[in-house]
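Next comes a single protein record:
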Amino acid sequence: MISARTLFRRSPPPALPDPVPEPEPAPPPIADPGVIDIPVIIQSAEDRIAGQVFAQGRHMARQEEWCAIGTLLRGYDAARAQSPAGRPLAEILASGARSDAVEAGIAAANRGDAAAAQCPLDQLRAEVDALCCDHGLALVLARAHAEVGLAWRGPDRHGDHTPEARAAFHAHFAAAQRLVDRFDACEADAPSLAAMRCTLLEAAPRPAARILDDYADLIELDPEMPAYMRALGRNLLPSGFGTYDMLEDGARRIGAETADVWGAGGYAWVYLDALALDRGAFLTLDDEHFVAGLHDILAMRPGQETANLLAAFTGFSLAPAPDAPAAERRVASAFDWIVRDHLREVHATAWAAAPARTGPIAGRACMSGDAADRGAARALSSLGQLFADDLAAGRRVAVDATGWRTA
């Protein structure tokens, strides 16, 4: 069940579409010795709610209900509505609403056809122009331009791109910039617009000079949204717009500015994805402060969505090699108490989404197959490492709502 504090911070958001029925609970596992008995949830509350909102946006766009899309998106924005795992519902709705146009635009970009890539966005543009005071629709179109623009450039910011690809990338980002410039995110009380401004740093001439201030403005608008802090950390890496020192400075700043909400958790949120993507980020990490932040995050968000997210990062993405530095081993050791104190079920898609790395757990089953199978394999492999001694002794390891036990 989703708590009111998880989904809402200000006024109540618009109603969600009719919920997908809860899946029937799996039958109780057979009590075999030497195994781990834990419920594996294939479709979590995060999957259901995010899927419903995305599908609603896509359906409404196909019905050309653009005014209603804008109203609903603005309502989610004003309410600071988020999914159970901490993603903004306004942006999920916008993603669904633009999905058909983006799919067509990216397919054309992959063929090198600039005119065809622009065509579906021109159709969206006509709707935005008809409702020029609607920042919700402006966001839908601006995000569409950004996604198609990134398809022209590819994931490598510094790669060798053709002149045509560079021109198309900058044209799409310039179009997105013009749309966003119509509105002031603070006056509109719209974190989604502030987040879009941060995305536009991809095409800015000197993004390093702006990134921390732009993200600080965004996070001030919605300090309870983990997704924005995590995005800041990723973009402060050397592969993004920053350096390891900038990452540490940014984590300290955001941690201090969000301490009334998260305790030390803001520091941990900024570092979380960065550590999983680049082990060099451990060079500047205060590992004790980071682990304290994990404790504070789970005190603020004790649900299974957060427990699975942090367990997947510490037990799978951040699992260290035997000769790893002390800071890596200290962070990875948090997996033990996260599991024992908080984890009561496995959310397969949360583990599937965790960044992968090479190591003893990242075997073939953990890297292949559909998301549900891959996520379950990652979780059970990680838990198998944690409870290796019990399993080797032939003991059954099981969990229920009251906690873990062995027999």
Summary: Residues 64-153+168-203 form one domain.
